[in-house]
Request: fold
Amino acid sequence: MDMPPFSHTCSKLFEGYPCCHRQWQHPGHCRFVHGYSRSFKFWFAAEKLDEYGFVVDFSSLMPLQEKLRNQFDHTFLVNFDDPLLPQWQQLNSEGALDLRVMENVGMESSAELVWRWANSILFQRDTGRTCCWKTQARENQFNSASFELIPEWFKTSHH
Reply:
């Protein structure tokens, strides 16, 4: 999308979430456990600013920041269908790792997951005044993936 179809946008970066994962089905080195310090960027939109003149008051994003911290800060991410899941669960119960089971641990799926989190929080709080229309999940300075979608409820309530 070249230009978002709304009048006001802003973005917020959250960084410093060291975690590890593996893509067990990958034929190359991605099948091995490896880690990154992930970061996430969110793009927000609104047709109308709030009473303080903001699209989104960044200080109000603590619930989102807490979800990011809980999921990605010093955690071990595995896909739900990882054949070693019983071993990872055992290591988790022994305190060797902090396991998070996901549909897919990749950056593309992570970008979509955090987009859903952001929009859930915004919709509950702002009842459709704001939305998150794009997210980026970054594993390092070279590699990232984005998810971009205007929520259906935002389209219908503002256009």
User: Anything to note?
Assistant: The mean pLDDT is 94. The radius of gyration is 17 Å.
